[in-house]
Specification:
alpha/beta
């Protein structure tokens, strides 16, 4: 199974390694042909405004949006979650989003780079806590109908699922624990 990693900016290499360890074949995605050739897609952490502008500049926004509408599974982490969010609240919007996941997020809600942290989170379906890395992370302020909360930190959702869409406010690719990527691979296999 080929899982694309949007390779415009962000944690591309880290996601590719995690996907490989989780049993998928990672493929860097930079063109609309590459979007068409993968079974699923990862939108990595990075800088959401930059990634969104690059999606627009390289004319990938509409091909990705079309594949998502067809049911392609997508994992969005940190910036990728922001790109998936239907709504961005606060003064810092992100243009050029997919808007495919019915959540509202606030960018950089956990603080600046210096306020980055790691914490153990209980994830529904996992047998032990997952060490989550938060770097300028978004906060999920609202989840829509049909969005399942899989993990929370201090009462706020940090990992959500809606059908074939999986969104994480943290960076699962920044640890050696591949269980979030394994969950995504299981979702792809259906």
């Amino acid at each position: 199974m080929k899982v694309g990693v949007l390779a415009l900016q962000g944690d591309v290499r880290e996601h590719a390694l995690a996907l490989d360890r989780a049993g998928a074949t990672p493929v860097p995605v930079k063109t609309d042909d590459a979007v068409a050739a993968v079974d699923a897609l990862v939108l990595p952490g990075g800088e959401s405004t930059t990634i969104g502008k690059l999606l627009d500049r390289f004319r990938l926004l509409e091909p990705v949006r079309a594949r998502v509408e067809e049911g392609m599974p997508v994992l969005g982490t940190c910036a990728g979650l922001i790109l998936m969010a239907r709504e961005v609240v606060g003064r810092e919007d992100t243009p050029h989003r997919l808007g495919c996941l019915d959540v509202a997020v606030r960018r950089n809600a956990y603080g600046r780079q210096i306020a980055s942290f790691e914490t153990e989170v209980e994830v529904a379906g996992l047998d032990r806590p997952f060490r989550a890395v938060f770097i300028r992370a978004p906060e999920i302020e609202r989840v829509g109908e049909g969005v399942e909360v899989l993990a929370e930190v201090s009462g706020s959702p940090v990992l959500v699922r809606s059908g074939p869409l999986l969104g994480a406010a943290f960076h699962p690719e920044m640890t050696t624990d591949t269980r979030v990527h394994e969950l995504f691979v299981t979702m792809i296999r259906g």
